Amino acid sequence: MIGFLRGDILDVTDNRILLLVGGVGYQVTLSQGPESAALVSGSKLEVHVHTHVREDALDLYGFITRVEKELFLLLLTVNGIGPKGALAVLSGMSPASLVEAILGGDHGKLQKIPGVGKKTAERLVLELSDALKKRPDLIAVSPAAGGSSLRGGVRAAATNSFSVLGKAFSDAQEALVQLGFREADVVSVLKRMESESSPELKSPEPQEIVRRALQQLR
Fold first, then answer.
1. Is residue 138 part of a domain?
2. Domains in the chain, number
């Protein structure tokens, strides 16, 4: 299976590119995000790839970031969504907004994606919410883990909650509260983690803190 390609773009047609790698041209279908829209012939490109094998064809779907590919693979697990449908979802909403909408159960926001109706939006929330909660690397792309608040007052309350490691723990607190955990329980766990100050948490990323906290909150 092809999982990653690096090469020169020979041609760009709509959301498809022809990528020259080692003398071989690979046709790759991309999501229609701002990054892919900026691609031009003659430029170099590194792309994460999902190889989809059918009886009569082998299709390559490409993603500028690893997060996009991981979300694509999660979308494929939803009943009734195939590669083209998953790509359409990613084309209609940024990864951060998609994660936020699913975790927040925002059916209305999801239905703004072209081709996503009420039933599909409901399935996305129902079938992916729990899966996303087990993926701190994907949770971290949402505004709750990246800087902007999803809930009024959470940012202000979190800013002064942690004295040693500051922002990373505050961002993790927001992400965990957004997942539905009680704020008091979240703060208790995170303060305990902060006080332990294990060597690997000296310079932590929010997603690593979220991953460790989830082990104690479940």
1. no
2. 3
Give whole-number Cα distances, 209 to 48, 120, 140, 155, 204, in Å: 26, 32, 10, 17, 7
Cβ-proximal residues to 156 (8 Å cutoff; 6+ apart), any chain: none
Over residues 103-133, the pLDDT tens digits come to 889 999 999 999 999 999 999 999 999 899 8
Give the end-to-end CA distance of the chain in Å, rounded to a whole number: 35
Report the CATH number that the domain containing residue 79 is assigned in CATH. 1.10.150.20
For residue 98, the model assigns a pLDDT of: 92
Burial of 155 (0-12, 13-18, 19+ CB in 10 A): middle
Which domain does 76 fall in, by range?
Answer: 66-133
Percent of the chain with pLDDT over 90: 40
195-212: buried (b, 16+ CB within 10 Å) or exposed (e) per residue?
A: eeeeeebeebbbbbbbbb
DSSP 3-state of 112: coil
